[in-house]
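Weekly structure sync, notes
Attendees: PL (lead), two postdocs, one rotation student
Agenda item 3: pending single-chain targets
PL asked that the sequence for the first pending target be pasted directly into the notes so everyone works from the same version. It is reproduced below exactly as submitted, 241 residues in total.
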Amino acid sequence: MIVKGGRTNYGEAIGILMLDTKFPRIPGDIGNALTFDFPVKYKKVKGATSQRVVKEADPLLIEPFIEAARELEEEGVSAITTSCGFLAVFHEYLANAVSIPVFTSSLLQVPFVYRMLKKGQKVGIMTASKPHLTQRHFRGVGIEDIPMVIYGMEEQEEFPAVFLDMKQILDVEKAEKEMVRVAEKMVSENPDVGAIVFECTNMPPFRRAVQKAVNLPVFDIVTLTNYVYSSIPKINKLIRV
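Predicted structure, written out during the meeting:
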């Protein structure tokens, strides 16, 4: 086999558009490369803070995200994701800007998860901030008509302080207890929840603790990324000549 070059590096099949943040990203978080059993390629979108993405859904960020997505495509990745589920609101813009698959948000899994459940059950959504997760986000990924129950972390102490307000020290055990507390409250108050989807890409490190606490399937951006990775070419667009 003879292949054609043209780039400096190869083998990074998944590209990840990163928010401009400084909080810790432990293994399990999409921003920690040790989360994955395969190489990923990161690209930070300068100025894309949690404030502008989560709380403002700032449309001025669309072009910088598109530019970064196109750069990742040019650099050879086979699919692109992001480090914030709230980018669901920009999903169509990004998907239409490149010629490779784009999965901006873990929320894209919601239709799949819902179809797994029996009639009358709902999908539980755990989000970083319930007040800021709106119908615009749901429309962005086509889930506005699916029965959902939504619980947020905004009233907790550690989780929002770090992942929304940019505190640079994370008490992992405290954040995990908060995640479990919110999940247990959701299931207790809504026994018709049949599975949970984490919107937030900082939540996957706590997936197992939540699974154990509520005894339900839990899906997140890492489960989605692994699924997409299993479907795409692994030669990273080496071109046979």
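Discussion points:
- The first helix runs from residue 50 to 55.
- The two ends are 8 Å apart (CA to CA).
Action: rotation student to compare against the earlier draft before next sync.
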